[in-house]
Amino acid sequence: GQSLEQPSEVTAVEGAIVQINCTYQTSGFYGLSWYQQHDGGAPTFLSYNGLDGLEETGRFSSFLSRSDSYGYLLLQELQMKDSASYFCALHSGYSTLTFGKGTMLLVSP
Amino acid sequence: EAGVTQFPSHSVIEKGQTVTLRCDPISGHDNLYWYRRVMGKEIKFLLHFVKESKQDESGMPNNRFLAERTGGTYSTLKVQPAELEDSGVYFCASSQISRGRNTEAFFGQGTRLTVV
After folding, report:
1. Would you call B10 an interface residue with chain A, using a CB distance cutoff of 8 Å?
2. DSSP letters along B100-116, please?
3. Which residue among A58, B7, B45, B84 is buried most deeply as judged by most CB within 10 Å?
4. Chain-chain contact of A45 with B98 (C-beta, under 8 angstroms)
5. Residues A25-71: pLDDT tens digits?
6. How close, in Å, is residue A78 to chain B by CA atoms?
7. How confident is the model at residue B97 (pLDDT cuts 50, 70, 90)?
8. Could you tell me if B23 and B74 are in contact, meaning their C-beta atoms sit under 8 angstroms apart?
9. Where do the H-state alpha helices sit in chain B?
């Protein structure tokens, strides 16, 4: 089976940088994605790492290290609207997506 | 292009009743997933269709849940009979087939099910 671990909650202030970690256990996977979900809304895709290293998309970056079974999402220049839940997800098998429990990010003024 | 649509957006039913949720994926997406999020907790996988076939239904909690995807287009998820613990938000997502590459999943707005 597969399992992913994320912190349940992270707090930060506007303008700061925050890192949300994700560790996983799997027998094999293609890549790691990150999704954002605002309260009550649909999860939306943020980033994907198929290879080790850093992927940058605007204020968001994501990192993957297969040797360490570890990834993270880095959010820079935090804004109030970034307050949401963030999920890491493993891509495996026939396009199956397995999500972590999610990290609630609270951004304060 | 229309996104993933789910119907209804909200449903309140009594324990023991039956409810059927519907999901219309993005046209051309062969992958269709059902997930459930309970009370702000994790997004739990229920099952995965590839076209009309169930690729993985390991997340279905019990035999009160029945999912179908006749013709490989829209899907339905029936809960019969509903229990209190079935309450939550049921999300449907779809994606294109792409083994080994990024397969961004597009989510619907979810159906908020409340069993009373």
Report:
1. no
2. TS----EE---EEEEE-
3. B45
4. no
5. 988 888 999 999 998 789 999 999 999 999 998 999 999 999 999 99
6. 22
7. confident
8. yes
9. none
